[in-house]
Amino acid sequence: MASSDVARQPDKGARPLSLAGHVGFDSLPDQLVNKSISQGFCFNILCIGETGIGKSTLMDTLFNTNFENFESSHFEPQVKLRAQTYDLQESNVRLRLTVVNTVGFGDQMNKQESYQPVVDYIDKQFETYLQEELKIKRSLHNYHDSRVHACLYFISPSGHSLKSLDLVTMKKLDSKVNIIPVIAKADTISKSELHKFKIKIMSELVSNGVQIYQFPLDDETVAKVNTTMNGHLPFAVVGSTEEVCVGNKMVKARQYPWGVVQVENEHHCDFVKLREMLICVNMEDLREQTHTRHYELYRRCKLEEMGFKDTDPECKPVSLQQTYEAKRQEFLAELQKREDEMRQVFVQRVKEKEAELKEAERELQGRFEQLKRLHAEEKAALEEKKRLLDIDLTSFGNRKTAAALLQPPGFTVNGKKDKDRKNSGFM
Amino acid sequence: MSESAKPHHPSPQGKGEKSHGGDFSYVGIDAILEQMRRKAMKQGFELNLMVVGQSGLGKSTLMNTLFKSKVSRNKSVQSNPEERIPKTVEIKSISHDIEEKGVRMKLTVIDTPGFGDQINNENCWQPIMKFINDQYEAYLQEEININRKKRIPDSRVHCCIYFIPPTGHCLRPLDVEFMRRLSKVVNIVPVIAKADTLTLEERDSFKQTIREELRANGIDVYPQKEFDEDAEDRMINDKIREMIPFAVVGSDQEYQVNGKRLLGRKTKWGTIEVENIAHCEFAYLRDLLIRTHMQNIKDITGSIHYETYRVRRLNESNGKIHPINHVPL
């Protein structure tokens, strides 16, 4: 996957001209560099590898600092990604470095979905950038670019071949990110085994169609060194931040009872090659490949997925505007339809409720009438009874006066005679 | 997926000395500057300059002097007098590939014959505005394509050099109108043309008047005050702002002065050396445009003027070009 950044050809219509003196625009690259210095750079590395394979140690060794990291457990239920951002400075260059580590990769029993969180993370970074680029008011020059520029894939040093997890993951990632495979913990493999291992890995990658990142060959100044390095892929690295005294110097190394593996010794491991290729020679190219190849591919797929095309079925160029207009009408029509539906449902419900209420009201009215009638009836009956009682009372009163008139005068004092009178009066 | 983006500030133990092998405190981050330089040299640069001014003010000569080669053909060479003054403002754009010390540049000079030459000069800036906006539009269309080119060809006008005739009095209404409208869409660098007709005192008072008039009319010429990035920038740009408009003299002929061959204009009373700062301010203009501020001019065009155009264009079609903002993903 050599970078195909073509040198600009002189455009048609631009006549070449020779200058008669010193104009001074040879300072343009310097002006450009100065601007970049004041802006700062950013670089994002993704490290994929099994737990305990030495990702964090290698990052520490590469950048000669102590990044904040802690050992992860082997019992993660799912693969997660942990991203940390650091501001580094060397002489006058400021670098904002983001290191993304996978946590729990290769630890699960079922590794079928292991690659998915990684792919999702990379896509999410592309998506954020795409959103920013498509905004109306955007600020691209201030934007902190979080897209993954390089992916270091750590191969475990079994000495045999790639694991199927490795192949599957790399195949999923090769069109999204620049993959640089490295053999981790290379001090466990002997030189001859390493040579065979490297050949086996490269042939497996080729036969499975995995496109790893090839160092660019089009710039003469670095073409030679890049070609040699391409032949040394994958790099066998050893990471260490501990220093051991060798000879009379302190070097970064790992001390074993049988000897000392020096990290920066080219005979011992390929660490120096990796550092040179990743940082000193090709960092800018990695960033450019990410932007011009991987990001453009993502953008193209995303926009096509949403239905935008550059040309319609008759192969006439369709502006984004027309497609958008069509989509917008469609969307608005859909909205309108839904609104109408909802309105209808609402009206229906209101009607139903109204009918119910009317019914209830009528019922109540009926009951009221009934009660009123009952009340009137009872009142009438009561009146009737009262009238009868009155009649009885008056007739009794009449009879009493009549009886009092009929009584002889002597009978009123004597009790006996009264009794007789009483008895005779009431019969 | 847990993310923690706390920027830390660990620095590599031992600041980088540029020695390889043995010095392990050197990481090599600053090698990216070299990489950038290489990439820029390989890609080459593009610069689009527009010259605006009445005919006869020495626009073509100044371009030739700036770039030390025949970038514009001199109008007086044309033999046909009827063709000399166009009826409307035309836009003529000529491109050249020039190279210096390995740096390749595609220079496009956009000439505007007919500007200010008619009797009725109303709206003579319109073709120019339209041209500038057309370039922005072309770039915008390229940018929103699905299949984009690897490098979008940049035809946007980076800088417009406006030639003020050396009347010595003040700006004419045409000048004010033009600069007022165009300073909003493009970087304008006003220059006083044919400055050898003004004495030094006249020149200074003319410049003072012009600066005051620009300020009074709210015209922001390059370098714009609001785009100064930090105190250092402001200091440098303030010095430049004290000197604009530059009083320039152009010439593409060499004469012998004091034993050296210099570009100049020879008259009966002496030879005006173009590159002598005691004679005229051509050297300052050249330094500003080419040697120090060229990248800055291109940046302001790209990130401010172009973005303003883009915002306006997208808003006026009510976001019609923008799918992401309105259509649910």
From TrEMBL, chain A:
Keywords: Coiled coil, GTP-binding, Nucleotide-binding
Pfam families recorded: Septin
Statement: the UniProt record of this protein carries the keyword Mitochondrion: no
Domain Septin-type G, first and last residues per copy: 39-305
InterPro entries linked: G_SEPTIN_dom, P-loop_NTPase, Septin
UniProt GO molecular function: GTP binding
Coiled coil residues, start to end: 321-388
Organism superkingdom: Eukaryota
Gene3D superfamilies: P-loop containing nucleotide triphosphate hydrolases (3.40.50.300)
Acetylation listed as a keyword: no
Record-stated family: Belongs to the TRAFAC class TrmE-Era-EngA-EngB-Septin-like GTPase superfamily. Septin GTPase family.
Protein name from the UniProt record: Septin
Lineage: Eukaryota, Metazoa, Chordata, Craniata, Vertebrata
Automatic annotation (TrEMBL), chain B:
Region spans: Disordered: 1-22
Keywords, ordered alphabetically: Cell cycle, Cell division, Cytoplasm, Cytoskeleton, GTP-binding, Nucleotide-binding
GO molecular function: GTP binding
BP GO terms, sorted: cell division
Alphabetical list of InterPro entries matching this protein: G_SEPTIN_dom, P-loop_NTPase, Septin, Septin3
Superkingdom in the source lineage: Eukaryota
GO CC terms: cytoskeleton
Keyword Nucleus assigned: no
Localization per record: Cytoplasm, Cytoskeleton
Stretches assigned to coiled coil: none
Residue span, Septin-type G domain: 43-316
Family affiliation: Belongs to the TRAFAC class TrmE-Era-EngA-EngB-Septin-like GTPase superfamily. Septin GTPase family.
Name recorded for this polypeptide: Septin-type G domain-containing protein
Organism expressing this protein natively: Poecilia mexicana
